[in-house]
Amino acid sequence: MARMTCLCGYHLSNSTEPEIDNLVFSLEKWAELLQEADETKGSIGMNTSDNYWKCPKCTRLYFFDLKTFKVKEIYQLEKRYNT
Ligand SMILES: [Zn+2]
Fold first, then answer.
1. How far is the CA of 22 from the centre of ligand 1 (A)?
2. Domain-located, residue 41
3. From ligand 1's centre to the CA of 24, what distance in Å?
4. Is there a domain that residue 49 lies in?
């Protein structure tokens, strides 16, 4: 598995905290994957989605280039609304 240190200093590891590791799909892509899973009896290719880690301490999002597994974009919370 992988690990890295967030800009806030928190140590991120997808082996000890797998909930930080997420995939993002558009609704269109999600529908394609469901169709593909239906046609292949559950086997789908995950290589076209975005992958990001979310720091549980500061909520920064790290998006990865899936070809190089290097961080390509970092997002930081701008504002939080109480709901
Ligand atoms: Zn952080």
1. 16
2. yes
3. 20
4. yes
Within-domain flag for 81: no
What's the whole-model pTM score?
0.81
How far is the centre of ligand 1, averaged over its atoms, from the C-alpha of 55 (Å)? Answer: 5
Cα 23 from Cα 51, distance rounded (Å): 5
Name every residue whose Cβ is closer than 8 Å to that of residue 46 and which is 6 or more positions away in sequence.
Answer: 23
The domain containing residue 38 runs over which residues? 3-75
Query: How many residues does the structure list for the chain?
Result: 83
For residue 53, being part of any structural domain is answered with yes
Residue 28's Cα: distance from chain center in Å?
18
**DSSP count for the chain of H helices, then E strands:** 1, 6
Determine the distance separating the centroid of ligand 1 and the alpha carbon of 28, expressed in angstroms.
31
Give pLDDT tens digits for 11-53: 999 999 999 999 888 899 889 888 988 888 877 776 667 899 9
Number of structural domains in the chain: 1
